[in-house]
Amino acid sequence: MMNKHLLADLDPYTAAPETDTLGFTPLAVGWLTRQRPIATGKVPANFVAHLLAFCEVGNVVFPWPRPQPCPFCGALPPSEVDGRAYTPGLGEIRVIGEEEIYAAPSLIYHYVVAHNYQPPAEFVTAVLHGPQPGTAEYNALVRSLR
Length: 146
Description:
Elements: H1 18-21, E1 27-28, H2 47-55, E2 62-63, E3 79-81, E4 84-86, E5 91-96, E6 101-105, H3 108-115, H4 121-129, H5 136-145
């Protein structure tokens, strides 16, 4: 079994169910741990709102049995952000890029907002310009994964 905590950004995410189902391997983003330094810095102003859409409770692709705590600040209670349901650490999300699909924990929103994590530029571009949760293209992919 793959140890997700050993993954660096843009490593192949080989534990993904879609590897066998759809024949592709997504790239890992945001599998952070205290044992490895993280990239920090600014993200575009509208990135945070777009990222939240992927991390909302209804858009988590692979939920975990219970929310996982943040490795940097501990357990996180379920919450709402701007009236949208967001439970940190609830499961995995998928983001569709121009040529890649990215697998990230739903904690990634918390990492960006609370810990100044700066995801790779290509992931940021995919969040901003790729298919958004709720669109036909995104929903079709998510249905094929579940």
